[in-house]
## 1
Amino acid sequence: MKNLLRYSLFIFVMCIACILCNAQNLKGGITLGMNASQVDGDFSGGFNQIGIRAGGFVGYKISENFSLQGQLLFEQLGSAGGNQGGRIIRTNYFSFPLLAVVDLPILLGEKEYIIQFQVGPAVGVLLDSKDFFGEFVDLNSPDLRGLAGFAFALGKNSLTVHYGYSLTSLAGQAQGNPILTSNARGLFHNYVSFGLNFVLFSPE
């Protein structure tokens, strides 16, 4: 699995390098938003943990209706509340999504709108992690996730909505933490993201 994560990071870096070699097809800017998240496997339910989602993005247009988009984000994920006395988990990541973007024209009345369907992997590099018992010291990192969602145009800018889920367990070799030691299946980030993409440069 570690080799798979290394290959994923390598592919991400190579794709960004290829994008930068063709500046005439580039579009990029900053993204600001929030995550509403929970951690499957911690015995608490509900997307109650609200966290920051902020960073930058670069997109490369391959054809009229298809492009690739790479992102570098700071993200806060975790869980809060639920049925175990207000249990709180918060994790901070640098995240690297790589999304395939498909433009879907939608006709409403006599006007055509473009909605983008976005799907792809993301790799999260753990910065720190805590719960109300103290610090998680041995959570697995990187965290490999799957993402899918939509972007809705607001002029040159866009509103984005994504759903993300961990493909690998966060539970590593931490000892003495009841969340980790009592759950054989593991821990998985489960979250919905909302963001605003502000375009700073584009070929148009």
## 2
Amino acid sequence: MNIKKLIVILISLAFGSAVLIALPEDLEIFTDFEDVSGEGTIYIGQEPNVITLVGFTVETLDDPTLLHSGTKAITLGPGQEGRIISSRGIQNLQFYAGETTGAGKFEVRGVLNVGTFGADRQAVTLIGDNGSIEGLPTDISPGANPTLYNFVGDSGFFQDTTDFNFLSGITEVKFFNVTGKLMIDNLGFTLTSFPSNNTVYSTFTEFGVGAKDFTIGTSPNTASFEGDGAIDFVGSGNAYFVRSLPHSYMIHNGDEATITFETPAYEIAFFAATVVSANQSDPDGSIEVYDTNDNLIYTYVNLEGDITPEWKPGFITINADELGAPGGISKLVMKDNKNLNPAFSRTAVDDFGFTPIGAPGTGTTATTTPVTPEVPAVAAPEITTQPVS
């Protein structure tokens, strides 16, 4: 076991339970629904820190057992279904929920790697282990000491058995099996810090093996991958270089690839792996960062040797302000050192996200005031799920 993994284990033993201490009010975004109204599709937060509530009604209630505070909660009636959705992924989600007959059910979902070794391995949206809750309390008032439902997408601690190990945080919570009135009050959340919490995000699953010279995103917010790199699958010698199955973007044996941003990037985040040598002064791979004047402003050489999610790998976050590039980042250059391990030398990136200059939230602190933007209701897509075996 290498030193990094040993350190991660020791930290997790010491601090693994700390992520569960906070209350909903302490999380990044909190609402007691007192300043929220509407039904159908409701947005909580302010861009880019937003989650979507689908199918619920914000209701003023007279019965104190149906509320944890104030006079409002979101509700479902008999036979109705509701969902909490996050396209970017939630790190920590907390709320109080009840159902007047003691019925009701909800499932917490996110993306996990599944399948046996080989081409059938995929990253699939699943119900998290212990993420299916059935039978809710009938009284959520403070005096009843109701359950505080508290879920962590991925704590980042190696031996934390209370989180879901979702690759990009919690993406959906579905509520159903309602026979009376279901109510949710005092909801708080913090979005994931993983690369998925960016304007544009890709796990490269939209491209087939061998794909070269492609673009992710929609103009003007695109990143073009060009050069010697290509999409490569999990196989013999590649398993350590893929985070979200089944493949990642790789270069080999002295190759070079350039990632160019149509609109300069304010922030970039991704997982990167390379062959690790005993001689750390001569790393196998590197990633160079360039500003809009084509100046090399930083080079990342301390890449991971293993980005499989089981080991809770770290990821690279590049921030234009922190690197002294107020105009943004124009491109990244991936390089692989052919002299280190010529037989199997490779450098890879996976789970790649970026936020362009000028996008909501760039260079500012997100507000914690819940809002309901006046936008047309959009039906959310159904997600096919299955329990984790």
## 3
Amino acid sequence: MTGVTMPPHNESPTPSVRLDHQGHLLSDLWLDENDARRQVEQRVESGKLEDGQGQKLIQFAREGYFLDSIALESSLRQQIIKDIDRLWREKPVDLAYSFVREPCSMADSHQRRERRPTYRIYNLHSHSEALRDLYLHRGLHGWAEMLLGGEPVALGTIFGEFGSRQPFVRDAVNVDAPDPARLVTAWVALDEVSQRTGPPVVIPRSQHLPFYQYEEGRISIGRDEDYLEGYRFLMLALRDAGLREHVLTFAPGQVLFRHSGLVHGAKPVRDPHTTRRFVEIHFTRRDLVERRGAAFLKRVRGKLFRSEERFFWAETDRLLEKDGCQGFDNPLRGLHPRGLTLWEKLAGKLGR
């Protein structure tokens, strides 16, 4: 693992994705094939799939998502909550969070101002054993294997404590993955999710809509590019297709599995004091990726001891494993940039 001062988010060359002449993602995911329903039914008839699994896979092929549940032990949920409280106190340098702006080091966080709706923590599984257990949950990886048609690997986690009025987005655009067509997401509810906590919204069948290209073959947005042009393109595509949103509510332990092209967002938060904790996990095929990278902003001492913000980047090939499930470690784990304060250096050496 190495750290350098370089900007994230497509400042380096980004591989082109495969699109047709209308901007549709060319996918070789088996559930995107025209005969996906027949393939699922054959697997059910042969005993490779249970009937309930087959119905969910058919829904995924048709609408781009389905809901399932996992056994979420109360002790695991409570430990994750305790870990969040601890990390807001400890403010580890090598953990990224965001509030309004780009990902920053938690060492620069302000709990009173920023621990409220819209904040997120990235790759929390490196600092919470309980969340790591969820990251490597056999039930989630089992579904990912069925959806991807091969051995899956988890790419990372996003933790949220509150809801937010998230504009419509698509994972194929916003998640760094080697092949956006072979990317699936599991959104796990840790709390009850109701209308007043800003529930998630999906737009069924939107996975087949065309993508906006910021340049030929590139659907991901760069740091300095205006997302509004791509957003207008998406809104027009939704209007022309006549698709409508569907609001989802959850009990703790319910999971939303999403296609990478599915358009999704969230409703406004009616009660900003009520939590809506969730964990989002992204999966791809293990044979497609060898390393993961991540970046964040960190305030450090610059020239003449003046404080300044810099981007830092790190990569890892380290895999975490449990019960046959694999997921990448946090690329930022152990990253302590030059220019830290004395307290930050000491905290890093103590492993806090």
